[in-house]
Amino acid sequence: MSAPFVLTGVTAATMAGSADPYCLVRDAAVAVRDGRIAWVGPEVDLPSDFAGFEQRPMDGRLITPALIDCHTHIVHGGNRAREFEMRLNGASYEEIARAGGGIVATVAATRAASQEALLASALPRIDAMIAQGVGTVEIKSGYGLDTETELKMLRVARTIGQKRPIRIVTSFLGAHAVPAGSDADAYIDDICIPTLRAAQAEGLVDAVDGFCEGIAFDTNQIARVFDVAQELGLPVKLHAEQLSHLGGTALAARYKALSADHVEYATEDDAKALAASGTVAVLLPGAFYTIHETQPPPVQAFRDHGVPMAVGTDWNPGSSPLGSLLLAMNMACTLFRLTPAEALAGTTRNAARALGLTDCGMIAPGLRADLAVWDVTDPAELSYGIGITPLHARIFGGVL
Ligand code: DI6
Ligand code: FE
């Protein structure tokens, strides 16, 4: 554990409370001890308890919670650049998927890759996130669609957290696509659910996800997976209403899911259901942008009904090869009309909630000292920049 210290001369976007959209504390100090935030407030009010702490001046820079990417598929083999060209020549994402490309193409590459190779290809992606001030990353399985490869993916995800100063949360996404030549119902019952049980038995699963879409699984098939998740005591989340309205969002609400993700085709009734279940709407502008979607999510309905909104990269080789959470924030503002404050809440406080985490995502006493100091003074600059990474310093677990 590192020696305690106090960051002084910061503008703290604490994201904790409701005083203003950023819960800002100007001319602030943040005391860090034993990996946790010990105190935050106006520097002039710094308690004498912290007088002996090493002071580290930040010269008026902005400090935020370390960012949280609550939706990624960064463990995978191969790439889908060829499909990018096909889409530019007019093929739709769905046409490519139905023609045997898409997710199942990445499945072949992931099955063929060793655990070591998958780790080696994922670490540079994690390093890019760390360089962007990210402290927590959710990583999904879903490119194996067989027991051996799904477990391999989740083991790689767990290993990443041992190899880098980053917190990894895993989601089992066996219900991501139907393997080539398989029947969807048989796959769910004979492969997906037994694999979920095996992954949970090995301690590899933090949540259970699914893809509810015409090119993937219907609500009945997802419900069978969610029933087992509940039996195992695992929370659920769902890729819902990305390309059409199948009822996935309402299903997620019925299971009190941590999050419903994409939700471009969600309705006002869906927003009411999410509000009632306390489910976070995770917005994924990278996929919307990449596959040239036209239906943005019902952001105003989410606001009207008090649905917390998170923002993720959905970093995956097909629909969202987006390696920047800061750019995802900019896209969420530009494409979905989020305010910069909503975008920052979406990659801190609300992203933590989408992962069921209560010890991060805000700057408040007792929470993890996962922090980011930025070479900016106005929090809106984090969403305003396009492809700009103004990180000055990253603190992870209280270590600068
Ligand atoms: N929705 C998506 O956009 C990704 N998965 C999902 O359920 C697509 C993943 C891929 O195209 O490889
Ligand atoms: Fe996804």
Low-pLDDT residue intervals, each spanning 5 or more residues = none
- Report the C-alpha radius of gyration, rounded: 21 Å
pLDDT averaged over residues: 97
User: What's the count of strands?
Assistant: 14
Which strands sit side by side, in order, in the main sheet? 5-6-7-8-9-10-11-12
- Overall shape: globular
Helix content: 25-40%
Order of helices and strands: EEEEEHHHHEHEHEHEHEHEHHEHHHEHE
User: Which ligands appear in the coordinates?
Assistant: 3-[(4S)-2,5-dioxoimidazolidin-4-yl]propanoic acid, fe (iii) ion
What is the end-to-end distance? 11 Å
Main sheet specs = 8 strands, parallel
Number of helices: 15
Which structural class do you get from the secondary structure elements?
Answer: alpha/beta
Bin the strand percentage: 15-25%
Characterization of the model:
With 400 residues, the chain is α/β, with parallel strands linked by helices. It is 36% helix and 22% strand. The protein has 15 helices and 14 strands. The chain has an eight-stranded parallel sheet with strand order 5-6-7-8-9-10-11-12. A six-stranded mixed sheet has the order 3-2-1-4-13-14, with no helix packed on it. Strand 9, helix 8 (248-254) and strand 10 (259-262) form a beta-alpha-beta unit. Helix 4 (115-130) crosses helix 5, helix 6 (184-201) runs parallel beside helix 7 and helix 12 (325-336) crosses helix 13. The radius of gyration is 21 Å and the shape is globular. It starts with a strand and ends in a 5-residue tail after the last strand. The mean pLDDT is 97.
